[in-house]
Amino acid sequence: MKRITTNLTPAYKKESSQLIKLAIPAILAQLAQMSFGVIDTIMAGRYSADALAAVAIGVSIFNPIIVFIIGIFLALSPITAQYNGEENKLGVKRAFQTGVVMSLLLALPSALILISLEPVLWAIGITEEIVPLASGYLNVLAWGVFPLYFFFALRFCNEGMFATKAIMYCSIIALPFNVACNYWFINGGFGVPAMGAIGVAWATIVVWTIMAISLVVYTLTSARYHGFSLFSNWLKPRLDDYMEVLKVGTPMGIGLGLEVALFGAVGLMIGRYTVPDIAGHQIAINISSLAFTLSLGLSIAVTARVGYHIGRKDTVQARQTGFMGICFGIIISMFTATCMILFHESFIGVFTSDELVYTVASQLIILAAVFQISDGIQVNASGALRGMKDTKIPMYICIVAYWIIGFPIGYVLSEFGGWGVKGYWVAIICGLTISAALMTHRFNKLTH
Hints:
- The chain is an all-alpha fold.
- It contains 14 helices and no strands.
- Helix 1 (2-47) packs across helix 10 (275-311).
- The radius of gyration is 22 Å and the shape is globular.
């Protein structure tokens, strides 16, 4: 027994070190990218209420499209990681080239959808003066999906090759451009007219383009890819490569969409309640989303490391890494939950001084602290399964957890049980807890 312990401890320390080394840059990259939306909201709001409303509506329509597309591109991370584990340079090259081509193939229909949405805005009853602004915002973003999808393709391939620092640097580099271009294009100057909400979209395109250029420069010049010839001597396209990305990625896109839709549906249902309820809900969601970024960044590292070990045919180490990630997710979640409980007054005070809003937000923050642990477990268990290219069953788990069990419970509690806004937050807790249990069980079963 002593000999086994001696052999396992250094291996455990090495793997945990590798996981943390990948996770920290991924977390910082996620925080930087989240800040883009916060900056857009603040600067549009300072220009005018109409600009803020137009950006909010545009983002609420744009995000479901992007979430689904991200799910597809996420497939490139485990695919590349497994080729990396196999030390298959040709496979890595195929993954990169397949991702680049798919970025073009997916960007074109996305752009066509975005420029065709004005009738939808009228149909759902958006305020008359906001429709041209929101439509203009989406029309401009249609051009931005080309550099954005190109960035996604390179990003997830690089994450599969453990290059999370590159994503972090590209995101941080773009931050000052986001602030400067927002100010310039929103308010005008130096020959550019004031464009309000549409200026936010143009600034967003600049940010996405800078991120894409930065990442392609890294990919072309990094010693990590010496001898791979990633973008020279292009390989003959194989239908199987594209079908694999779609086969692995489409269920992930649907699964992510179902989770985002749960939060969106909860927000819409709460939108029928009082203003303090709506505002308190929004504040609590913003705080919990920021906390979730930590676990989400960790899950990126878990996917890459599990995929790498699967590529090396080392299922035992893949299992250890997956459960290590889940345990780290629990530790992170306990930390964020404790911070929410101890410092909720300070967190809420950043957003509001209204006593009624504060009361609602403080109640919901406690519920947000409860689901932190479930959220940390489910996102990392899902990341481990993603590293194994197991995405179809997790999609079904999302359907069951969020929509067959979670949301109906919240609806009954809120609409018939008198729980109000808190009932829908119980729906989130139930959905995430069931998802966490089933995802972990699935990973345990596959690697047992």
